[in-house]
Amino acid sequence: MNALNIAEYMQTMGARAREASAAMARADTAARNQALRNLAAKLRSSLERLAHENGRDVDHAYAEGLSATMVDRLKLTPKIVETVAQGCEQLAAMPDVIGEIIGMQQQPSGIRVGRMRVPLGVFGMIYESRPNVTIEAASLSIKSGNACILRGGSEAIHSNRVLAALVQESLVEAGLPADAVQLVQTTDREAVGQLIAMPQFVDVIIPRGGKGLIERISRDAKVPVIKHLDGNCHVYVDAPCDIEMAVRVADNAKTQKYSPCNAIEGLLVAREVAAEFLPKIGAIFAAKKVEMRCDEEGRAILAKVQGANVKAATEQDWYEEYLAPIISVKVVDDLDAAIAHINHYSSHHTDAIVTTDHIHAQRFLREVDSASVMVNASPRFADGFEFGLGAEIGISTDKFHARGPVGIEGLTSLKWVVLGNGELRA
């Protein structure tokens, strides 16, 4: 396509999405839930087809020299397919919040005032690598009564085309418009520029990917953006704590999978427990070939661990999102120092404390300025599916409208409603 054709193509998609959004907003709950159940069934019955098309994307990624992390994000395994299928079913089983009226109160004038939850309308989703995002975005869009335009990365185009086709089949079979979920079929980057500059058709843009992509979208978009930047997440091992629990949590938080944005990049340890805790986690990281970039105190302890790959941390390491088997490690004085470090260096995504002190736990929850804050649990739980949202459209580190895993409510708005009986303003 040339630039003119891409502009026309995106304008057409936008107009169709806007029309479909009206139909989705008035569609009954049963139809939207049926579309989700249809989609879950189609995903499970299409494993062979999905594996073939995803294999094409993975082979091409290897041929293009993509990093192991990027290839890992690209893979659409049967386990991932089953997870998103369960997410569809979980969404279908959840109550419908569209049209819900909350906070209705009688006023002295006689009117009753409350707020009604309504769909946003049309959202554009721009994402990289992970083809499962196609289903997560589509399923949440369907449940929340919105329409969406999806633009996945060129590296996942074959996988995304099959997934989008399954979504549209599921919509039509439920009596809903196929245009409620549209995939941008071209990999030309000009399509992104058009999508983020159509306020007449698109109500919000949600970018999900690398920092460069999100910064570009935030800078150039002519419609509101729900975003998160990098995922520089932390576990703080407090004094006092259950050391064995701390080892399990820190290990899972870093090594269960290296590529997600909720894997930790920083490990903070209270000085009082460092001599006991660090050799234990260091031995695990050494066995799993995790490089540890440490402050001087942490390095002195971990250098004694057999096979440990220990290096001196730089200032940049405290800010870094590695998405790799690398972790920064720092020994801190106490809870105050840990909170100060996190609030200064983190990306305000997800941070956790391991502690047996209830007051410390409560302070950590109140004072750490992140979208998700946890006590005695792995930050890897910061996920819409794990939080019971059915799926997530992304994890927002913004403070307005939506924060943390963005599920159904994050794709809705509240409008004021007034019920009266002929009351007049004096």
Give me some keywords for this one.
single chain, 426 residues, alpha/beta, 7-stranded parallel sheet, 4-stranded parallel sheet, 16 strands, 19% strand, globular
Commentary on this structure:
This protein is α/β, with parallel strands linked by helices. Helices cover 43% and strands 19% of the residues. It has helices at residues 3-26, 29-45, 47-63, 68-74, 78-93, 132-143, 157-173, 190-195, 211-220, 243-255, 271-287, 296-302, 335-345, 358-367; strands at residues 101-106, 112-119, 122-127, 147-151, 181-183, 204-208, 233-237, 264-270, 291-294, 309-312, 326-332, 350-354, 372-375, 395-396, 404-405, 412-419. The strands form 4 sheets. It has a 7-stranded parallel beta sheet with strand order 10-9-11-8-7-12-13, with helices on both faces. The chain has a 4-stranded parallel beta sheet with strand order 5-4-3-6, with helices on both faces. Strands 1-2-16 form a 3-stranded antiparallel beta sheet, with no helix packed on it. It is globular and about 70 Å long.
